[in-house]
Amino acid sequence: MKKLTAILAFLCFISLFNPLAAQTSESFQEKMDLYAGKFPQEKIHIQTDRNNYGAGETVWYKIYSTIGLENQLSILSNIAYVELISPTGEIVSQKINSLFTGVSVGDMLLADTLVEGSYRMRAYSNWMRNSSSDYYFEKVLNIGNVRSDNIIGSSKLIKEGENEFYLLNFENPENKSWEKTAVGYTVMDGEKVVDRGRESMQPDGSIRIKVTDKNRGKPLSIRFKNLDGSIVKKLINTNVFDSGNSVQYFIEGGQIVSNELNRIAIKTLNPQGLGIKADITIINSKQDTAAVLSTNELGMGSAPCYFEEGESYQIQTKFEDGSQKTISIDAVSGNNISLAINNSNSDKVFAQVNIAEGKINNEELYLIVQQLGKIYYMAKNKAGQANVLFNVPRKDLPMGVLTVSLLNKDFLPLSERAIFNYNKKSILPAEVKLNKSSYGLREKVNTEITIGNTEDSIRFSALSASVVNLKNYRDDVPNSVSILSSLFLNADIKGFIEKPSFYFNADGTVKAADLDNLMLTQGWRKISINKLDSLSNAKAEFDEEKGITIKGSINKVGRKAPVPNAKIQLISTNNFMDYLDTTANAEGEFAFKNLLFPDSVKFLLSARNDKGKNFVDIIANPFKEPAINFGKNQPLILNDINKLNADQLLASKKFYEQLEKKGIMEKVFQIEEVTVRAQRPKAAANSSNLNGSGNADQVLTAEDLSTCPSLEMCLNGRLTGVVFRGGIPYSTRSNGPMQLVIDGMYVEGDMLSSINPVDIQSVEVLRNINYTSIYGSYGGNGLIIITSKTGRDARSSAYQPTGILSISPRGISLTKEFYKPVYETNSESQFQTDLRTTIHWEPGIVSNEKGIANFDFYTSDEAGTYRMIIEGLDFNGRILRRIIEFEVK
Predict the structure, then answer these.
(1) Which of 296, 288, 303, 287 is nearest to 249 (CA)?
(2) The pTM is what?
């Protein structure tokens, strides 16, 4: 790593007077350099066209991947994973995007059967999995459903005597009383079901579910029949009903130094985990006031406080809602050392070391400013008095979260503090011009963006823009996740950050005082300097990916014993490539790396042992997603989305009915959950269906199959929404091959012809996402679950050759083009009635050598305020975010 001039001067100085110290300092920096070089920080931000959607719509997105605080576009990883996670933790959609020099575009179709709720959109690279999921990209998308779900619901907590109940109410779509309806509910703990029950809906649509230890604070999955017999599903997040505000305190530098001024930070939260304003008074045991402060709208504040050794203190809190709470501060001990930071000066960061009397020993102290091992500043002083001051120049510090570390003479940490450094060089200057100040209906809008300054040698940039009509649409985008918050805050801060863009002004400058309180009250990404030896010699668990990896192992037939040095071939059935070959290691493990192929491509794996025999078993390792971090954005998981976004959802429904007629959008198939259920045949009790026996879109019994000459002939034409091509079942919805499961075994669809229908007890068809989502990637195109009469017959009749395996790994997701109407004479790209919410999505904006980029679009048939958001960065890593509003009359 290139050493800073200040560091070199410092090293030369100490080497003249203390060779041993110079050696120790150099060794320490080498280890920090080694760690920073081996484990670069990769980050991801995604801009979406908006934050609120309806089922059946498409989420349009642009991916930006960068390296380090300098935010250079990343060439480390060429693969990014984008997932949509339901409130109960199911991954309902997953995309694999190919990154080109750190950018990619994509889209995600929201199934028309999605249950209304708050969904997490998560993105990461394989390399990012070496760190905590706290640092993955994540934003919350609120998704309503009025296409296959016309029920508006509401929920609240009520108390009756000593008991508490969740009171749910569902409006009758015909404004009538509900007939007696049974309502089933399931209680989820992460991905695990911990309780089930059933209640009766009252004529007014109300349901009462008693609060117990099993369901308190856990998601409730509700299921009941609609008026037309279709199944309605709702998700209720009961965390929002937690009672009582809370108070937390944080001491700057981590510990109190007695008989000194110590900065204390306070965080006040409402029951949902969101900030609440409060007035704070800190008193000692004599009821004397030690400090007074107020928290801001995000519940954060700080103040200096003098703590006397041996004294006890309490924090008295008066919340904005009138409630009060008092908590105690841990006992003050006298032998500590801590950092106090003044981050308000524009030229320097002032760091004061406060040293208790027992720690004043005249030993050397080192102060470093670093981020994940990359040192930006280093200086030395001695612990010769109670207060030792360091002045850190800002000019060479990058923008973002930095760690100020105080080290002892052995370079072990004594105290640490996160700071946020603002550097205007990290913000991309830009000018956005519209050709008019206001527009009419169906009028063309021309936009010109000019980035950079005339003295810039490079003015190329990668940008994206979304335009939304705010007439029926409401969100808090100005304060929610943005490219600034993703790359400068969320990538380095642990836990939930409320309104992350609140800390950035419209011109990219920051709210310094509020940011400093965030640094004081929130955990941050850092390295364990006291474990630097082991960290610098560690090997990354997850590799950077230049392409998709297919890996697995070769075992002896019917055994777990590996076959070392087996020869494996990977063959594409689409002739996408001829073949690739590799050799297994001593443990029988193999991997094909750096592959690029589109989704839905089928491959054959062929293997032979070292004697050339194919008498081996091939096990392909499925992709395993990281565990879901439920706590990260939990306060944003809302209930009753259909009610909250009713205007937007109803307007979108009218517009998308037109798109369905024009063939631009798939028509919702409400019949999928038509409850054939009322007359549904009974599936085999020993069915391997993960939803439970009989929970399927269609069920055929042994009696239905009794006259069939072959299973393939019997099923062809009898399964709703399934067509057969070359003997393989395809879903008409996704147009992809369905997964065949025989007595729990995942096999290929072409094996149907080899199964004797006499041996089959039941066939279950899963096409609805409510049934297929539990299977993850295996359920992408639907499943056919076959259960034999004995549980063994299907295994014996389905031929499974050795030494060969057919696989369909998830490939690179293909992207669609955003439909853009053109209201010019003789243009065919028009809507009869234009009621778009997303007016325009432009993901591929690239400025030229002069820093200029242009795009255009047409307004819709609805007047109102339109909002344009432009995000991106230039090839120097400077970040741009701009929000522009204009009127359409």
Answers:
(1) 303
(2) 0.81
